[in-house]
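Hi, here's the filled form for the chain we discussed.

Project: internal
Contact: R.S.
Residues: 481
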Amino acid sequence: MSELTSRRRLLVLGICCMSLLIVSLDNTILNVALPSMGRELGASVSGLQWTIDAYTLVLASLLMLAGSTADRIGRRKVFMAGLVLFTLGSALCSVAPSLELLVVFRMVQAVGGSMLNPVAMSIITNTFTDPAERARAIGVWGGVVGISMAAGPLVGGLLVDSVGWRSIFWVNLPVGLAALLLTWRYVPESRAPRPRRADPVGQLLVIALLGSLTYAIIEKSPVAAGVAAAALLGVLLYEPRRREPLIDLRFFHSAPFSGATVIAIAAFAALAGFLFMNTLYLQDVRGYSALHAGLYMLPMAGLTFVCAPLSGRMVGSRGPRLPLLIAGATMAASGLLFAIFQAETSNALLFTGYVLFGIGFGLVNAPITNTAVSGMPRAQAGVAAAVASTSRQIGATLGVAVIGTVLASGVATAAGAAARSTAYADSFLDASRTAWWIIAGCGFLVFLVGALTTGAWAQSTALSCANRLEEPEPSPEPSRA
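And the returned structure, exactly as it came back:
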């Protein structure tokens, strides 16, 4: 890709951020609409889990394929195809007549979404080649997540209360179409100098692993758990034998990259569980409207918006260690505030917990992305960015699956109780104690892994890994007689 002017680079960044906006906004709006959606479609807690996890599961399964495909056939081409599919899927979701078809159409959305964020990050990485400039661009990218979190509850609440839950998918249509036209006009084509070949067996193993693991958690299926274990073993045994695997396990020889992967899973599991649980609590237990519930969660969303670009600047000037440590500490403190001190019983404590979580999540995103792509060769930027994005979606999938299952199991003890009754509220709050301990544990994990993978030793492993990736890998396949 030829060198672009500063103005053109900023325009490319803005176009890429539009794709992130519709994907992130879609998730935050959907959370606010869950209770209304559940009432109209007759969905249980597990049914509501699938409306979210069907999307994140497909997204996580295809992100690495989309990243490597974009490196191979062209990032602009794949990015535009993703915009078309995501916009079409959004239109189909808005007319879904049943929960089952809504889940199917969410999967269509996810196929398109898998071609957006990792490919957009790859475009940004190849557009902003200066490390400090790239860190600032990634900070802007993280700020868009904050915008979507701030706008999502409000926009979603207004739409659900005034028009109905189906209208939440309409927001994606004009933004998706505008991004498509701007990409066609202004984003230059780029691809890796030596792209990887397709790995269909590896792709099927990843789909089997993530799908069976999610099903095992939500539906409590030991058979699915066995399939997940077998698929994981298959990935570990098969992928290193490929000359150009879907998942290059050599990436994980870098302690910062491995740490970023673990931190992404923990942070996004906490976020997804936080949003899922609080949406149901505010609307089904407190009895608030969708808009009222969205306003209550605004402190968390607002602090995410404020802290995301600040985190990008901190990473660019001081590195990822400080924002990761602050993020882990504040997310853990938020979980402990609810788990130990029952913050739901006081609006002051409730808002304090929301503010702490917003600060933590706002600070965590930029270090994840920067660490994941900065130590890798630019030729594999699509794959590296896709692994980071996949880790986020795996975290979101597991967060909803685990937190939703904990809530469903606890609330089931109040069988037959009407929503918002004393029995229902008490059982929900009892179950949420365990859920908040899980969220606090995710925060502690972010802190611990951030501390361990941002020092001098970790940087030496990143340098060694980068050198190894630049060297051609010998074929492990035996020679024929």
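Let me know if anything looks off before we file it.
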